[in-house]
Every structure is written in structure tokens, then in C-alpha cells.
Amino acid sequence: MSSPLASTARSGSGVLDSFFKISERGSTLGREIRGGLVTFFTMAYIVVLNPLIIGTVKDGAGQFVGGGTDPAAAIAKIAVATALVAGVVTILMGVVANFPLALATGLGLNAFIAFSVATKMTWADAMGLVVLEGLIILILVLTGFRKAVFEAVPLQLKIAISVGIGLFIAFIGVIDAGFVRRPAAPTGPPVELGVGGTLRGWPVLVFVVGLILIVTLYARKVKGAILIGILAATVLAIVIEAIANIGARTADNPGGWGLSVPKLPDHWFTKPNLDTIGEFSLFGSFEKIGVVSALLLVFTLMLADFFDTMGTMTAIGAEAGLLDKDGIPPNSQRILIVDSVAAAAGGAASVSSNTSYIESASGVGEGARTGLASVITGICFLISMVVAPLVTLVPYEAATPALILVGFLMMTQVKGIDFDDIEVAFPAFLTIILMPFTYSISAGIGAGFVMYVILKAVRGKARQVHPLMWVVAALFVVYFAIGPLTDWLT
């Protein structure tokens, strides 16, 4: 006879299975939980990194985020708000869109806002631009324009986007781990192996051991291979730091840890400070820099967010085997709505635009196929608001091996591109290589779209191009020329 407790557990599991369609998508409750945990560990660095990027830059009024003059206080506030917004919007993605996609403050956009936007105005004004950008994209989603653009993209270009993102996240992995670095000498190559062409430091060894372990476990079809690898590499990193006292990576200590030093914290809990919530001025920037300049900044932010998410959800859907025959993931409209809301929410909390994270692919690699994984990831972010010191236990070098394996898995889709057809092959090639080369998903997508339209036109096949592809290509031409256009118009 089964116990009441066992019956309740089965009932709860059945509700989750029905709501998230776990069995229908060929997954299990265990896979979804593991996938959600892996995604969190792979992208938890943003709770540490975002405050260091936007919390140490003074705005045009000489103040830090939150209106203070103490960078340490600003960093602490941003860490909490970053985790809060990421947790809420990621849970929203799981519940509303039922898709294994996590969201958090977008890297690249946050640096652009901190160093190129906020220095010309107050932080509140800059965050107002982010809120405006998110609201405009939400309108484009609700009117069906964003989804229509997505559906207008040829299938093979969608495949190229997935492949390019695979190469991109693998490149992110080796860079963040210190396996590949920018050389100190300005006359040297753009990147090089380790330091001066040689691998140096115990952290790189942690990365190599973690990568070998994850790939070995995956090859042997061990359940939880990626999660086991990350946790094992983290334990190894903690032990090495405790013995060798390596410290953070600096110019004087090139063999140090990349972002966070893996050592046990002095305190385990922090008291959340939510002072940055609501610190934005919707139209303040228009007064500070003028209407034209403000609108150009909104356009730049919007186009980057618009196509980054399109590429990310395509890549995640492809890796999870959830795309339909046209390369469209399930609930795509809901995915885009949540992503748009997340962009505005990030601005409203003064942590910069939130967007979909390609690191979600690590959770998919662990077996995640539904939004339950996103709910797990979101809950972990919310917990990190009060246990932020624990997040720093996982260094880059322990988490990034997962990106290498997932990058490989996404690269295998390249066989779906017809490289005998120059009209699609060369645009696909540009998309694939420019994502890692420019460190931008949008730049790769834009270059591929523009070249696709050009090649179709010069070969007399302009009518085969969807009208929206012409519109998007024209917008990307403006995007690439935004610098000189801004100078000319202002």
C-alpha cells in the first residue's frame, strides 16, 4: 500500500508534468531540475560581473548607480537588483512561455550604457532609455511585427545563427577561462594561447580538468554530466585556492582567477537592498542630449535586443529539438513578449536591459526541454539575493567548460546549410564567423541578412526575398552606420 506522502508526491509531479509538458517533450523531472541548476551555475557570474561593470562608472552628474558617491554601496545594490530581476523574468519565461530559456542583464549592452550613454546624463536618464527601448519592442511584439520578421528569415540562415552562436559561446568559454587571451603587446595578434603563447596558472588547469571531465562523462552518457563537471571543478578550484592562495587575475598576477576567487566567504548571507528599483527617468535624456541623439540611442539598443533574442531562442530551440519545420520554437510569441518585458524591467531596476542568455544552452545540454528548468534557474537567482557570497564560489574556470561542450553540440547543425549555394552559403558563413569575431550576435545576424539580400538582388532574384527581409537589411545598414550618422545628425 502506498503512503499518503508518496501519493501526494506523484500528484505534484503529475501536475508539473501536465503544465510544463515534460513527458510530451521527452524529458523528465530530474532532467529539468538538473538543467535549471546547470544554467544557473553557468550564468551566475552576471550577479558578480554586472555590478563591476555598471557600479564603478560615474554618470554625467558624477554619481554612481543609485545616486550615491560610494562605489562599494552601488555594487552591493546592483548585485541584489541584478539577481532579483533575473530571477523574476526567468521564472516568467518558464511559466508563461514554457521554454528552457533564462534571462539576465545583457553583457555588452550594459557596458555600452555605462561607458557611452550614462556618462552623458544621469543614471536615471540612461535607464529611462532602456525602459523606452523595452516598451517599443513590446509594442512590436504585440502587433506581430517581431514574430513576422522572425518567420521571414530563411531556414538556412536560422541554422547559421545557431551554428554561429555555438562558435560564439565556445569562444566566450576559452576567453573567460584564460585559455585564450588578448596579448599585452599592442603589435601582437588579437588573441593568443594563455600568456605569451603558453598556458600559465592553476586556474587554467581547473578549466582543462573540468572540460575533460564533462566531455568524458557526456561521452559515457552519464546523467548530469555537465552539472557534475561544474561542481567537481569548483571543488578542485576551492582546494587549490586554499593551498596556493592564488588570488584574482591582474596584470601583475596573470595566472590568477578570472572573475571571482573560489574561497569560502567570511559570511554566508547578505541583507538585500532594493533602493535601485524604480530609479529611472523616462524622458530625462531627451532634455540632456536632445531628441535626435536620444532616439538614435534607443534605436541602437532596440536593434541589438531585437535580434539577439531571435538568434538565442532559435539556437536553444534547435539544440533542444523543439523547432518546427520552419525553424520556429513553440510559443515564440510568448517568448518574445517575456523578453521585451524583461528589457524594460532591467531599466526600471537600474541594472540595464535584461535579455535571453545563450548560456541556457548548457541546461539544454543537460536535458532541459521545458520551462520548468527556467523556473529552477529563476528560483536560484532569487536565492542568490541573500546568499550572494556563495555565487562567487563558482569561478569562470569551473563553469566555462560547459560552454565548450554545448558550443560543439550547436556547431553540429552546420550540416544543414547548403554550402554549394553561394546565395545562402556566404551569408551563413558571415553570420557564423562574425558572431565570435565581433563578440556580438546582432552584428553576425545583421551582416548575414544584408549579404543575403545583396546576393539575391545581384543574381536577379530580388522577388524571392521576403519584403520584411528588405526592411530588416535596411535597418541593419543604419545600425552599422550609427556612429557617423550620430555625428552627422548631432
From TrEMBL:
Using the record, list the residue span of the signal peptide; answer none if the entry has no such feature.
Answer: none
A Pfam family of the record is Xan_ur_permease
Main localization is membrane
- The identity of this protein, by name, is AGZA family xanthine/uracil permease-like MFS transporter
- Report the domain of life of the source organism: Bacteria
Transmembrane residue ranges? 35-54, 74-92, 99-117, 123-145, 157-180, 200-219, 226-248, 289-307, 372-391, 429-455, 467-486
For this chain, one GO molecular function annotation is:
purine nucleobase transmembrane transporter activity
Report the subcellular localization: Endomembrane system
Regarding the membrane, this protein is recorded as: Multi-pass membrane protein
Q: Name one GO cellular component term.
A: plasma membrane
As for family, the record states: Belongs to the nucleobase:cation symporter-2 (NCS2) (TC 2.A.40) family. Azg-like subfamily.
Mind listing the UniProt keywords for this protein, alphabetically?
Membrane, Transmembrane, Transmembrane helix, Transport
